[in-house]
Fold:
Amino acid sequence: MKKGRHPFQFDTVHEYQIRNGGLQSCVNSRQEYQRHLYGSKTLVTYCKDGEEPRICIPDEMLSRSVKQFKSSCFRVTCQKNKRGWKTYGQLAPREAVLLPWQEIHCDSIGPWKIDLRARNIEFKAMTIIDPATNLIEIQPLLNGIAIEAADVVEDTWIARYPRPVRCITDNGPEFGQEFRDRLEKNLGIKVRSSTARNPQGNPIVERIHQSVGLILRVITPEENPRSFEDGKRVIRRCLATAIHACRCASSGAIGDLSPGALAFHRDMLLDIPMQTDITILTTNRQGMIDRNLLKANAKRVKHDYAVDEKVLKQVSLGLSDKLKPSYTGPYRISTVHTKWNGYDRTQASYL
Structure:
């Protein structure tokens, strides 16, 4: 019996093995196989105890036909509708921020609604954090436009803390060109947006947003606001409680210290001075980042993308998109960028 290279273990069964019990000597029992007619060929499948199912074919022509069928466009349609969510390629390493007050991450939260008697209050908020100390500031937004976001950064962070060198944002509408011009031209702060080529982004802010949402869901039903002024008071209290909770909570990434203690060199609850070594904390944080990176890459499929290779693009699906395809494409890769482990796909080239 000759084994092929296909993962389904295609075996070639010659004509003399099919005649007069030759197949029985091959599989040891007649109950272990079944004959199926595939065109003019006879396809025989069998399975032994403790082994994977094998497919026996009478000649190599059928093996090539099956491989050609699997590599046809039907396979692409099947892959586009799978829900496996396999991830390919290794994640790029990330460097921990060494010095405090050098970089800030900005992001917006909301909109959130508070139910009143006659109407609802809808509001947004802007989160600013120093990734070295995890010190956070949260300020409500009225309209969520770029000029208002720039005012919040200037009035909330620049007026209270040392001027940073960089500002990392996402691609939200509140961080448009007016926001960028205000910070770069007037304040001398470089604005960088998180894109596919810069996957470092602002992941710390997204985790804090979950804590802020939890506090809002707990305090709002207890206060039960009925007027517009009561709603604004609840919003201010919720955001202040979230800021205090984030500043007092100890974190393993900064040596089991709280962000407030690390930034102000004094405990947030007790009248005790704090003295820390920022270099040791950065080394420990870098080790934690590297360990988490190894765990994440262990779950991903190793693959080096190449030019002219075809890939599928994952689609963001909602709760009502159960019958929609999981991927679009295939697209041909025109350029490979290895700096940030990102890959530029040309969507104009199809199969």
Summary: Residues 300-351 form one domain. The radius of gyration is 30 Å.
